[in-house]
Amino acid sequence: MGGLGFYQPAMAMIGLQFHYAVLAMFTRAALLHGMNTRVFVVYRQAIATLALAPFALSCKSRRESFKTSLGLRNLSLLFITSLIGVTANQNAYFEGLHLSSSTVTTAMSNLIPALTFVLATIFGLEKIDVRSLRSLAKIAGTVLCVGGAITMALLKGQKLLNMQFLPSKQAFGLQGDHWLLGCAFLLTSSITWSFWMIMQVPVSSSCPDHVLSTFWMCLMAAIEAAIFTLVVDKDSQAWNLNSTLEYSSCLYAGIGIAVSVFIQSWTISKRGPLFCAMFNPLCTVITAMVAATFLHEELYVGSLIGALAVISGLYIVLWGKAEEVEGIKQEAQLNSTDQNDQINCKTDLEEALLSHVSESKIIP
User: Which residue, of 120, 150, 300, 306, has the greatest Cβ tally within 10 A?
Assistant: First the structure.
């Protein structure tokens, strides 16, 4: 099976899901202790920019690409992508995290593949064939994902767990009356992140170096988020970090962006994007178990049913997409085989003609 190297991509993705789960719980704890969500986004993006700067400008080729990527069209494209896909996304995500729970937040993120499929279809990047089983699977999975998200937002039901391992319930807080608003923010976050993924097609063509494009987007997002925060929050005290928890969460979240970019890029290069997406639901399971056990987050029947629907829909969409990718690969292999056959035939013909020409030159 290739030894340890065969399992390294899976191990990397499992570790990354633990990171996402810790990030959701760690950040929510800091937000419930009084940290401003908009200020947190600014600090997070600024730290991410500083963390990526040495890698983005570390080699000569990247420094040259840095200069060539300063064109008006490229900067405009990166600006729009960072404004919607990073600034709006992060503000909506962490506001939703604050108002709902870490478990619901990680579960709602599983909507992203389905929403990306919808947007890709609208923009003409995905084709739907009602006679194709894989197209029907993608449609059914998308409907199931959206239905699961609505169930999580509107249907709570009875509590499943009510464990209390912490001395005080107020340490991390319980779900309040803003649950529905939090789910609306999380849905907005998923839509904007799906937009970010769609925009990677033109961004990658204009700036093929993903580390460099990520650096640009983090830098622009930090500036955009700072302007947004200054306009919305007039109180200068909101910028103060008042505890070690708040400092640590900003540092962990900022550096986490840089680390996750490298891990995902490496894993995608080894196994492809679908392999990475398959691990997303694992974050939901980890977060639900840890949050319900140690952070006293309440787990409801509606949340469980909705999460299972979202996860099931995700895998159905990914199955449909995987079948499509497999078909594209087989078609590419057939085309490659045909091209090789044509090249071989051409080579054999040329060799025969050259041999004939050589003989005619040698023999008078």
Answer: 306
Q: Is the dihedral of CA 115, 118, 124, 125 positive or negative?
A: positive
pLDDT 10s digits, 31-75: 888 889 999 999 999 999 998 888 777 766 665 665 555 677 788
Cα separation, 35 vs 30, whole angstroms: 6
Residue type, 145: C
C-alpha 217/C-alpha 284 separation (Å) is 27
Residues 119-142: tens digit of each pLDDT: 877 877 767 777 777 778 878 877
For residue 277, the Cα-to-chain-centroid distance in whole angstroms is 8
Among the listed residues 331, 329, 323, 311, the one whose alpha carbon sits nearest the alpha carbon of residue 134: 323
H/E element holding 300? Answer: strand 299-300
Helix axes 89-99, 179-206, angle to 10 degrees: 160
